[in-house]
Design a protein that fits this description.
With about 325 residues, this protein is of the alpha/beta class. Helix content is about 50%, strand content about 20%. The chain binds uridine-5'-diphosphate (UDP) and magnesium ion. The site of uridine-5'-diphosphate has 16 residues, from strand 1 and helix 3.
């Protein structure tokens, strides 16, 4: 049988309560798929709770489970990268640790992959257990990045996806430090297909992404996949210069016709303050890009591994 090796990658940060509920669901979903040699790789992203002992206990009972522990919390994007980097054989399927991405859909993803698709991604048609603020900001973010970026980034699509071996190999070549995974997947391309699904509420615990983390992720996405904000400064400058020229003509004409009575302190203040603000914004934008350039230039590794337990599944191996 073709296409028979798959590794399910789960990044977990403080998920001790949800993992024992999630693992049986993933295991059951995998058992229902014919001719699949599956492994499950949990990446502990420097959790502070009992996630690691919980994972060790799961791996003890299930030989298909491999475990990776990072030296500290590097964030979801780095944790996923660490997991994907270990896989040398077969496809990978990324799923959240909190049960929001239903493992029962894995069979559908695998079926699409066997039909010849390289990037099978789940697209949310509903989000349970998330407030209107999160839904609205997520919606707005996907619209903005869709406009700004030339890389196709499908709307309402998270990291829940299956990557074929060649997609995985392509993704592995992208070693940038500032990793906006949704954009990197889109950059790879190949044959993509969306699987609509309803996003469920978390099975346990709370979201690890508060407003600031999401805001920073959004900035990451925009700066990683678009230089449009840099151009914004140019256009603002051009528009201001054109306006200033017209206004200057008017001031000169007025002085010639009616003489120059010194007045206009309020207008002057307004113009100075406005221009000062615009200049600071433009500097800030440049700074955002410069900071990222600085981080890239340091060439640090994307993550550090503390422990690696490849598990003991029978059959050919999946991992490096
Ligand atoms: N996660 C991670 N490292 C982090 C934050 C989150 O590995 O620093 C994992 C988390 O355990 C979960 C997934 O990323 O499996 C999504 O996180 P969460 O459910 O908190 O995000 P949300 O679904 O609310 O966007
Ligand atoms: Mg979640």
């Amino acid at each position: 049988m073709q296409n028979d090796r798959l590794t399910v990658v789960v990044a977990a940060y403080n998920e001790a309560d949800s993992l024992p509920l999630l693992h049986p669901r993933i295991a059951a979903a995998l058992e229902g798929i014919e001719g699949l040699d599956a492994r499950i790789l949990y990446v502990d992203d420097g959790s502070r709770d009992a996630t690691w002992p919980v994972l060790v206990a799961i791996a003890h009972r299930d030989p298909r489970v491999a475990l990776l522990r990072l030296s500290r919390n590097f964030g979801k994007e780095a944790a996923l990268t660490a997991g994907l980097d270990r896989i040398t054989e077969g496809a990978a399927l990324i799923i959240d640790a909190d049960g929001q991405d239903p493992p029962e859909l894995i069979a559908t993803f695998v079926a699409r992959w066997r039909e010849g698709y390289d990037d099978v991604h789940g697209t949310r048609i509903a989000r349970a257990g998330e407030g209107w603020a999160k839904r609205w900001t997520a919606h707005a973010f996907y619209r903005v990045i869709g406009r700004l970026s030339r890389t196709p980034i499908p709307a309402d699509t998270g990291d829940f996806r299956l990557l074929s071996p060649r997609s995985l190999a392509a993704l592995r070549q992208l070693r940038e430090r500032h990793r906006f995974m949704k954009g990197l997947f889109g950059w790879v391309g190949y044959r993509c297909i969306a699987v609509p699904y309803e996003r469920e509420a978390r099975i346990a615990g709370g979201s690890k992404f508060d407003f600031w983390r999401l805001w920073n992720l959004a900035l990451e996405g925009i700066t990683s996949f678009s230089t449009a904000p840099l151009r914004l400064a140019t256009y603002l400058g051009l528009a201001t210069a054109a306006f200033a020229f017209l206004y200057g003509m008017w001031v000169i004409a007025k002085a010639l016709l009616w003489g120059d009575r010194v007045a206009g302190w309020p207008t002057m203040m307004a113009v100075i303050l406005f221009l000062g603000g615009v200049q600071l914004i433009a500097l800030g934008l440049i700074g955002e890009y410069l900071g990222r350039l600085y981080e890239e230039s340091k060439q640090r590794p994307l993550y550090l591994i503390d422990e690696w337990k490849p598990g003991g599944g029978a059959g050919p191996d999946h991992f490096a």
